[in-house]
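TOPIC: backbone geometry
CONTENTS: sequence, structure tokens:
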Amino acid sequence: MSDDRHEKNLSPRPKGRFVLGLECVAAFVVGPAAYYAFHPPPWALFPALWLWGLICLIALLRDRGFERRRLWNAHALRREILPMLARFAVLGGAIVVGVLVLLPDRAFGLPRENRSLWLQIMIGYPILSVYPQEVIFRAFFFRRYQPLFGRGWGMVAASAVMFAFVHIVFGNPIAIPMTLIGGVMFASTYSRSRSLLAASVEHALYGCLVFTVGLGSYFYSGALNG
């Protein structure tokens, strides 16, 4: 997995590790569960995401041991892009076929029925949704909770599980398993490349496909109240 030689090691004592674990559960389990339980209005989701992302970004920038180039690192994306596109061709193709076979009435509904909204999502989603999520669940999570989960597959699994669980806010049985699979891919890409840009591009590819092919309603905050 990733090589963290350039970052200072974090190794709190057992008591500190326990407190860190409580913090992790509060932020990534209790918080999303409370959001789901209280059913806030759909418009509240993005401000909540941006605030959470901003807090995590500030924490990273204030952390002198954090390697800031991880927040972008375009060089690593050039190395990752071909394998990433190969995975996307296979898995993305499987998603399209699955929708065409199992949900033919939904297939490509958004671009067919509301092209303007679809274009807005294609442009805005990677910037306004994907990158903040990657700041939280990859850059911050990997840095902050390394003492709990290590630097290998344990961290990848923990990041993926927390990423999937937060999608409880959409209130449907499709979002969590799909984002668990995606979370493993995105966390693996970040761990391997040390590039938030690479993880964000991969996340954006699948997210834009989901909204294009007809599964967007499962990842729309209005579904919670609808």
